[in-house]
Amino acid sequence: MSMEAFSHTSQNASTQVVRSSISCPVHAGFLETNDNSNIPPSSTVSPLNARYKMSTKAAATESLVREFSTLLSAHKLPEVASFAAPGATWWLAGLTESNPMAGLHTFEEHIKQVEGIPKSVMNWDRLESDIVELIVDEKGEKAVVEFAIKLREEDGEYRYKNQAVMIIEVEEGKIKKVKEFIDFAPFTKYIQDKGTK
After folding, report:
1. What is the DSSP letter of 126?
2. pLDDT band for position 99 (cuts 50, 70, 90)
3. Which residue did the predictor score with more confidence, 127 or 2?
4. Which one of 3, 30, 64, 112 has the largest count of C-beta atoms within 10 Å of its C-beta?
5. What kind and span of H or E run contains 19?
6. How do the domains of the chain map onto residue ranges?
7. Which DSSP symbol is given to 122?
8. Which architecture does CATH list for 56-195?
9. What average pLDDT score do residues 172-189 get?
């Protein structure tokens, strides 16, 4: 298994990340260390990363983002809404002329928009979303998470597949900002194909 550690430093934060070929890896605020006693007891952290330990704030944000992602995938929107800080916003990439959900909205507005998508259009019970990669900065203030999305049909086939990336800003254990990037072309094609059957 190949593994490469690298660091990125900006004016606002310093992030040291571990790259790994393990599925669903966590690259979350790792600090190089010879002390392995504080490595989080999480199956998502490889024992091969024993040279690194996660900062406490980064670990808390990693846990929060994973729980948020699980609830979002399960379409448990009231629970998702509970993660929002006061005044939280949700920005979705795209043209507002063709997609009213695109652009900047309050967190609450976005959740209501998603709730308004009928099950006949998107059967949320059959939607599967897996974390491909998760990166959290050392201070636990920002996370970047990549999702693999697919929808299982009644015959077991997967006709809708997509990828999405979210940049999530966290403050005092709550989400204050989400920026979501998703390709709407596969979704549009899926809806069009359903309409022709």
Report:
1. G
2. confident
3. 127
4. 30
5. strand 14-20
6. 56-195
7. -
8. Roll (3.10)
9. 93
* Enclosing H/E stretch for 190: helix 184-195
Q: Contact, 63 vs 45, CB < 8 A?
A: no
pLDDT surpasses 80 at 18? no
DSSP 22: S
Query: What pLDDT digit, counting tens, does each position of 78-95 carry?
Result: 999 999 999 999 999 999
Task: Quote the pLDDT of residue 104.
Answer: 98
C-alpha closest to that of 187 among 106, 94, 66, 72: 94
What sign results for the dihedral spanned by CA atoms 142, 148, 151, 155? negative
Instruction: Give the distance, in angstroms, between the CA of residue 91 and the centroid of all CA atoms in the same chain.
Output: 14
Q: What is the pTM of this model?
A: 0.73
The whole-chain average pLDDT of the chain stands at 79
Among residues 173, 156, 133, 170, the alpha carbon closest in space to that of 26 is found at 133
66 is written with which tokens? 């994973």
* Residue in the structure block whose two tokens are 């690194």: 52
